[in-house]
Design brief:
Length: 147
């Protein structure tokens, strides 16, 4: 407790902020990748589109879920179309991509619409390959649906 007649302690003064040197980020050179690979993974629940360079380094990606589609809407052809268009425009803007070869994987309903979206996004498609993994009698498939 403070003694009688004593004045309250003055608040500590804030020292001036130390001057910092401004750091300038170096602008990355715009890397030009004229050709690449578009990997489209179409599952029953979602569609993923990834564009890589020829070595497999990821340049741009998108998915139906990342675009805000939720639940069963992620598996629709429209969501796959939006994902393909977003990915293609990103690769074209940032890397000046001109052509891709498409590798499609999975049984989903967004396969064709994602391919069409990449093509209409201003990127020429040189080839389309189906890379769906086929088991040599591996895991037991899920039971048949009774609707």
């Amino acid at each position: 407790m403070a003694k009688k007649g004593a004045q309250p302690a003055a608040p500590p003064t804030v020292a001036k902020a130390a001057k910092r040197k401004k750091e300038f980020k170096k602008k990355r050179e715009k890397r030009v990748v004229p050709a690449g690979i578009a990997h489209i993974a179409a599952t029953f629940n979602n569609t993923f589109v990834t564009i890589t360079d020829m070595e497999g380094n990821v340049l741009a990606w998108s998915s139906a879920g990342s675009l805000g589609f939720k639940g069963s809407r992620k598996g629709t052809p429209f969501a796959a179309q939006q994902a393909g268009a977003r990915c293609a425009s990103s690769a074209r803007e940032h890397y000046s991509m001109k052509s891709v070869e498409v590798r499609v994987k999975g049984p989903g309903s967004g396969r064709e619409s994602a391919i069409r979206a990449v093509a209409s996004g201003g990127i020429m498609i040189t080839s389309i390959k189906d890379a769906t993994p086929i088991p040599h009698n591996g895991c037991r498939p899920p039971k048949r649906r009774r609707v």
